[in-house]
Amino acid sequence: MRSVICCLLSAVGYLLSPACRPPGSQSAVRGPQPAVQVSPRVPKQKLVAGRDTVLVEIAAGEEQRNVGLMFRTVMPENEGMLFVFDRDDNYAFWMRNTELPLSIAFIERSGRIADIQDMAPRDETTRHASPVPVRYALEMNQGWFERHNVRTGDSIRVETVLK
Fold this sequence. Notes:
Elements: H1 2-16, E1 44-49, E2 52-59, H2 62-67, E3 79-89, E4 92-93, E5 102-107, E6 113-119, E7 128-129, E8 134-141, H3 144-147, E9 156-161
Parallel strand pairs: 2-3
Antiparallel strand pairs: 1-2, 1-9, 3-8, 4-7, 5-6, 5-8
């Protein structure tokens, strides 16, 4: 599993090498509101979650993580966004300017899902926090994990890197 995660980190580093979070930066809460009204499109990656392959955008830079899936009104069933952090920590998310109901999986460095939470659209008051230090967070359409029998304790692995 460690080699799978190293592969993911190498792929993200290759695709986004200048877009790393500076050391000492801890906040993963998305905000403040960006000046642009659309989310920047970022590199995509195929991941395997349970028995399904999903196509995710990689949000590894601070700006990409801050904007996330804001302002989007539609997302295909088997697509989402993978947030990649520079270090293991307890991260929290909120739903400012996010129109889609989402579910978030907090993923440890090993690829193991530590927790899955549902998030309501436009909810700026609830903070969805990882219960343990994690390296990744995967946002999918709300209920995706349940519909696809992906649960806490399952692992996420890399399928292919798309350029």
